[in-house]
Design goal:
Distance between the termini of chain A: 16 Å
Helix content of chain B: 25-40%
Oligomer: heterodimer
CATH architecture of the largest domain in chain B: 3-Layer(aba) Sandwich
Number of domains of chain B: 2
Radius of gyration of chain B: 19 Å
Shape of chain A: globular
Largest sheet of chain A: 7 strands, mixed
CATH superfamily of the largest domain in chain B: Murein tetrapeptidase LD-carboxypeptidase, N-terminal domain
Shape of chain B: globular
Number of domains of chain A: 2
Number of helices of chain A: 9
Structural class of chain A: alpha/beta
Strand order of the largest sheet of chain B: 6-13-12-7-8-9-10
Number of strands of chain B: 13
CATH topology of the largest domain in chain A: Rossmann fold
Helix content of chain A: 25-40%
CATH class of the largest domain in chain B: Alpha Beta
Largest sheet of chain B: 7 strands, mixed
Structural class of chain B: alpha/beta
CATH class of the largest domain in chain A: Alpha Beta
Radius of gyration of chain A: 19 Å
Distance between the termini of chain B: 14 Å
């Protein structure tokens, strides 16, 4: 049985760290002030806007230590990863989850953070939030706006609702490729490249009877095809309850066209099965990125008129 | 053709028809011998060319046909040559049908893949290996063809040749550079039964030692994409070689983590790092570690030999290697060599 971390209350503390790539402090300023505006205290880790001069926010040891510290700090009720990039795979095997398993808290992020979601789901059986990170709070904010006084968009608000314990109720437009039906299952998924990269490892996810969601950015069509085939050949697309296809942004093609769109590739990959599938769900590297509670039971309903996902 | 080798290969193939499952298991558990080695080619034998992945014209493979014919072999282009479905050499079904026909045709003694690209994984599950395992033959190629090497080795324990393909044969043989001549003739040598030996200049980051084991490996990205599938490579007690091209350092790092986290680096006999054409980091995204650092970080806790800059990869310096055949790797201060054991 999956454990769900307790919802946050006003006055609770959220820790912000960067377990992967570097991010400067200014880019997270709106996020920090918004969280404070929501009534939370924010503990900003040293990895955000660190002295690092290379790709990572810090050495593996530094990133690990900060994540571990927040994980074991009783005052910190949720950990928001400020950004993804690459690097979580380098430290995940050294994180000690023992105390976290007994006293779970929300881990928030997406993209490279899919490593943590998958690992925690498979090994700790604790729910986590795939959702907007610090940069997303800057969406629509003008340079001369006073931070924290901007009306946040519905995707940022969905994160607020998620950490406050409100049940998700998402509605999106139908898509021509959708396969109608109803599915009930735990939500699993995230970034396709990362899910493929985790295949065969201790962080690999089981998908049977679950609702799987996928998104990716900047990949070549042929590589997306290869990754879908990897999931398929690893048996991860056979027995899904349902499939949610999010955004595949900035997809690239070869000089000689691959000949199919990314949505066609996904449709082909699951054509032998009959579970419901929806396309164009707002989970992506773009602005449209709802908070998704991984590990939590959801109901996906796909009709000709709309798609709903209810916790 | 050495008659003794021919007989032993034939005998193994016969045993495979009786208990293929047992043999496949035995092949992956012990590394005291080679896998099932297809009969080496002799003059007059037929080599077929197919395109399991990317599209190629008959014209583009003409230099390779001429060259292979000059070895005293006959050459037949398969039906996928000249076919095109966008980037592919025909639809999945067309490419699979060509490969299947060549696999099952008793006259064809070796199948040379014309080029890589992307697509082998789309046909691998469409193939029926029944006839092939009864009468194994050489499959030749690299890059995307790593799918076939890995699938073949893991499931059937059959040896295959990792080497340059038709698109790497020089148009004008008389103007070919010595390295092109040597690497392409290494395909002939591997195919016609020469016991392979490779010597190279030691790299300062090598880890010294000696190892004996079957040689397995190929393109790192392709190996990662097979993880968790029934074509996933098994590396225990093996000498693993990897190469790649056009990847960022962070991506190479992530792929080595995939190897490590799927248990493919802990029980190696030895590790061979081939050529890596690295994509330069974007400004402000400097990875801060070299390929050598990336590899060492993953294998520092083990003690098997590791050698760098082995002549295999997306480069001119890409010699034929026999996958699933027993080799000895010696990594010393003065010399590094890899020798096929019979």
């Amino acid at each position: 049985m999956i454990k769900t971390p307790p919802p946050l209350k006003p006055g609770d503390t959220i820790g912000i760290t960067c377990p992967a790539g570097y991010m400067n402090y200014e880019k997270a300023a709106t996020c920090i002030s918004t969280l404070q505006h929501w009534g939370y205290k924010v503990k900003v880790g040293k990895m955000l806007g660190s002295e690092s001069t290379n790709y990572f926010s810090g050495t593996d040891a530094e990133r690990l230590a900060e994540f571990q510290r927040f994980l074991y700090d009783d005052e910190v009720k949720a950990i928001l990863c400020a950004r993804g990039g690459y690097g979580t795979s380098r430290i995940v095997d050294r994180i000690n989850f023992k105390k976290f398993k007994k006293k779970p808290k929300w881990i928030i992020g997406f993209s490279d953070i899919t490593v943590l979601h998958a690992h925690i789901y498979s090994n700790c059986k604790i729910a986590s939030i795939h959702g907007p990170m610090a940069g997303a709070f800057n969406e629509g904010v003008q340079a001369d706006d006073l931070a924290g006084q901007v009306e946040e968009n519905e995707y940022i608000r969905s994160l607020k609702d998620a950490i406050e314990g409100k049940k998700a109720k998402y509605v999106c437009q139908p898509h021509d490729f959708n396969r109608k039906g109803e599915a009930i299952g735990e939500l699993v998924g995230g970034n396709l490249s990362i899910l493929a990269h985790l295949c065969g490892s201790v962080s690999d996810i089981k998908t049977k009877g679950r609702i799987l969601f996928l998104e990716d950015i900047g990949e070549q069509l042929y590589n997306i095809d290869r990754m879908l085939l990897q999931l398929k050949r690893a048996g991860k697309l056979d027995k899904l309850a349902g499939l949610i296809v999010g955004g595949f942004t900035d997809t690239k093609d070869t000089d000689r066209p691959f000949g199919k769109s990314v949505l066609e590739l996904i449709r082909d990959a699951v054509k032998d099965h009959d579970y419901p599938v929806c396309f164009g769900f707002p989970v992506s590297h773009g602005t449209e990125n709802y908070a998704m509670k991984i590990g939590v039971g959801h109901k996906l309903k796909i009709t000709g008129k709309k798609v709903t996902l209810d916790e | 053709m050495n008659r003794k080798n021919f007989l032993s290969a034939g005998a193994t193939a016969l045993a495979a028809t009786v208990m293929p499952g047992y043999l496949a298991n035995a092949a992956t558990r012990t590394d005291e011998s080679s896998g099932i080695v297809p009969p080496y080619l002799k003059k007059g034998d037929l080599v077929a060319i197919t395109s399991p992945a990317g599209y190629i014209t008959l014209e583009a493979i003409m230099p390779s046909i001429k060259q292979v014919e000059s070895w005293g072999l006959r050459v037949k282009p398969g039906s996928s040559i000249g076919k095109r479905d966008y980037t592919f050499g025909g639809t999945d079904l067309e490419r699979a049908a060509d490969m299947q026909q060549l696999m099952d045709d008793p006259e064809v003694k070796a199948i040379l893949c014309a080029r890589g690209g992307y697509g082998s994984v789309r046909l691998i599950d469409l193939l029926n290996w029944e006839k092939f395992t009864k009468a194994p033959k050489w499959i030749i190629g690299f890059s995307d063809v790593t799918v076939i090497h890995s699938h073949l080795g893991r499931n059937y324990g059959v040896a295959s040749i990792h080497s340059k393909m038709c698109n790497s044969f020089p148009d004008d043989w008389s103007k070919a550079e010595p390295i092109q001549v040597d690497t392409i003739l290494s395909i002939r040598d591997a195919l016609m039964g020469t016991r392979m030996k490779y010597m190279l200049v030691p790299h300062e980051r090598n880890r010294r030692g000696k190892a004996t084991g079957r040689l397995v490996g190929g393109n790192l990205k392709t190996l990662e994409s097979l993880a968790g599938s029934q074509s996933d490579i098994r590396t225990d007690d093996k000498i693993l070689f990897v190469e790649d091209t056009g990847e960022y350092l962070y991506s190479i790092d992530r792929m080595f983590w995939n190897l490590k986290r799927t248990g493919k680096l802990d029980k190696l006999a030895g590790l061979i790092i081939g050529g890596f054409k690295i994509k330069v980091d974007d400004p402000g995204e400097e990875f801060g570690r070299t390929l050598y650092d990336i590899v060492w970080e993953k294998v520092k806790e083990y003690d098997y030999p590791v050698c760098f800059d082995f002549p295999v990869g997306h480069q001119k310096n890409n010699f034929a290697l026999k996958c699933n055949v027993l080799h000895k790797l010696v990594v010393e201060k003065e010399e590094v060599n890899l020798t096929e054991i019979r």
